[in-house]
Amino acid sequence: MPQPTRMSAPPLNKMSRYSRQLLLPQIGPAGQERLRAGRALLVGCGALGTVIVEQLCRAGVGFIRIADRDVVEISNLQRQTLFEERDANDATPKAVAAGNRLRAINTEVSVEPHVIDVGPDNIESLVHDVDIILDGTDNVATRYLINDVAVKLAKPWVYGACVGVEGRVMPIAPGRACLRCIFPEPAAAGELPTCDTVGVLASVAGIVASWQVIAALRFLMNDAPPPQMLTIDAWSQRMRSIDISDARRAECVCCGRNDYEFLNRSADRGASLCGRDAVQVRAPVGTRLNLGQLSQRLARVARTEQTPYLLRVMLKDSSAKLTVFADGRAIVHGTDDVARARVIYDQVVGA
Questions:
Q1: What are the Cα distances from residue 267, in Å, to 37, 212, 264?
Q2: What's the distance, CA 242 to chain centroid?
Q3: What single-letter DSSP state applies at residue 71?
């Protein structure tokens, strides 16, 4: 009896990947080509960032740069959609884990991960050759830093934030109202609720990030979104759009006076990480550590675990633990006292 012929899969038509997107009159073939040529920077790859970069990657944005300072932890998995338990168990840097996943999703997209703490000393080098900046951060200071560099280099960016069951999104284009026109001064430390203190609904992050992506796609296709701030209360299913077309202020510190306060300040050497009982300590600019040599040097006083990206250090005579990166940066766990963390860092790393 003749055997049925096995049908081979047809060759992949590259454009079939985007066929449903090409049908949209808002995009079409010309828009898809603009997306393919587009270059995006994501700052922060957490609850917002993972949704943002996955959607950009699936949409065919040609180049995606990811900058994030942290590693994957088990508590991230509730809302940070690109990561899995293995990433948390291995303490894989978020930028690396995201890059690995995105390359498996779409080989046509160039993904460039940076395990880096974005600050005044490095943000311009991250921004100079991209077309759009997306805010996936979890702290106010970095958002104001993004605003400074975006205004200085005339780059569009998309602000997004979420906490609890609420969120907001605002696309910011060169020549229009900037973040400091709307919020002239950042809130004081401890003044605003955070995900670590009040929690966050994963669906809210998904909604906010999706709106950010829509704005980014429009910027990349030279179809700038309207100057509006969208506020969302997901639990009550309420959304409100606020017109900010007349919100630009001539006296604005940033876009009015071109005083880039956050870009011009020195990077903090130490900063407590909200809700983490940990402090991040930065090394001087240009520091590079040989993690293997550091592990050997610490053999008598600590247990160490080295991965391709970091060195975990557990001191034998103390409860202190450190996660040390090759750029000299370290997260000191078990304290929220910046001065104490700096002492521990100097004793262990000495950079």
A1: 33, 28, 9
A2: 25
A3: B
Q: Is the pLDDT of residue 4 over 50?
A: no
Work out the percent of the chain whose per-residue pLDDT is above 70: 90
- In 3D space, the residue among 49, 16, 25, 22 whose CA is nearest the CA of residue 216 turns out to be 49
- Distance between CA 156 and CA 212 in Å, rounded? 12
What single DSSP character describes residue 7?
P
pLDDT tens digits along 109-144: 999 999 998 999 999 999 999 999 999 998 888 999
| First CA to last CA distance, the chain | 75
Q: What tokens appear for 193 in the block?
A: 């609720």
Instruction: Name the strand (E) or helix (H) holding 182.
Output: helix 179-182
CA distance 156 to 219: 7
Question: Is 328 in contact with 289 (CB distance < 8 Å)?
Answer: yes
Instruction: Please tell me the number of Cα atoms within 13 Å of 69 on its side-chain side.
Output: 22
Residue 244 token pair? 């900010």
pTM strictly above 0.90: no
Residues 115, 100: Cα–Cα separation, whole Å = 13
Write the CA distances from 14 to 36, 57, 305, integer angstroms: 12, 14, 42
Picking from 293, 77, 43, the residue whose alpha carbon sits closest to that of residue 161 is 43
Question: What pairing do the DSSP bridges indicate for beta strands 302-306 and 278-281?
Answer: unpaired
Contacts for 104 with CB less than 8 Å, ≥ 6 apart? none
pLDDT, tens digit, for every residue of 181-232?
A: 999 998 765 556 666 667 788 899 999 999 999 999 999 999 999 999 999 9
CB-based burial, 202-221: b 16+ in 10 Å, e otherwise: eebbbbbbbbbbbbbbbbbb
The DSSP result for 76-121, as a single string, is: GGGT-TT--HHHHHTT-BHHHHHHHHHHHH-TTSEEEEEE----TT
**Other CB atoms closer than 10 Å to residue 4's CB: what's the count?**
6
Pairing relationship of beta strands 330-333 and 39-43 according to DSSP bridges = unpaired
CA dist 109 and 17 (Å) reads: 12
